[in-house]
Amino acid sequence: ANVDRKVDDVLRNYRVRQPTALRARMQSSAVDILSGIHVSLQVSFILMVVSQIVGATGGIGYEVLKALQTYDAPEVWAGVVLLGIIGVVLNLGFERVQRLVLRLYGIRDGGAGLP
Q1: In whole angstroms, what is the distance from residue 24 CA to residue 87 CA?
Q2: Has residue 109 got a pLDDT over 90?
Q3: With CB atoms counted within 10 Å of each terminal CB, which end of the chain scores lower, N or C?
Q4: Segment 64-77, tens digit of pLDDT
Q5: DSSP string, 64-113
Q6: What is the pTM of this model?
């Protein structure tokens, strides 16, 4: 739906074959698709930790909750810092993948404010 109508018009006027047309449409909407995946990765990480806090018997979220209930401040901080580090590493890793995929489609600015 986010493909520019001009792209469709050019593809139709030049009678571009379907595989090439699909690649052109993907290139046109690659930034939007990857931005959506990026946001869903962040939300899924948050929901994973929350689900561990609410109903799991293991995991970092569970350990942080257990440390909170026993007033073990150093363990709480260790868990929070570890979650922060994991979140930053996931974010940076996906940004690297995003840049690589966008370069494959010929988008040099990285899209979404990436260098």
Answers
A1: 33
A2: no
A3: N
A4: 999 999 999 999 99
A5: HHHHHHTT-HHHHHHHHHHHHHHHHHHHHHHHHHHHHHHHHTT--S-STT
A6: 0.73
